[in-house]
Specification:
elongated, Arc Repressor Mutant, subunit A, mainly alpha, 5 helices, 3 strands
Amino acid sequence: MRFNFDSPEPIYLQVAEQVEEAIFTGVYQAGEQVPSTTEVSKEFHINPATVLKGINQLVTAGMIEKRRGVGMFVTANAAEMIREKRRAQFYDRYVSRFTSEAKKLNLSETEVVALIQRAYQD
């Protein structure tokens, strides 16, 4: 995990996003234990309350479950939940911005489609 302490994005959100990314990319599999808040806070010199706030975002979303006295574990459907969340955000984060820039550049729809097809082939 890497944290950007100069970013306007709060550290707790960076914690949540990085653990989420690790789940999505298979670093943490369903049923697998994730590092404790204490481990993360010590390794990266982050306040434990900040780490806990980030982890609790994932607990609330149902991606991680806490087992009292045992630890925190990736839920069975966490990766699919993340995929659905990202699909829902895809238009706003990428497509809308992409097409807005394409319009500024006076790219035709045909040219935009050709660029996308080329990117898929790369």
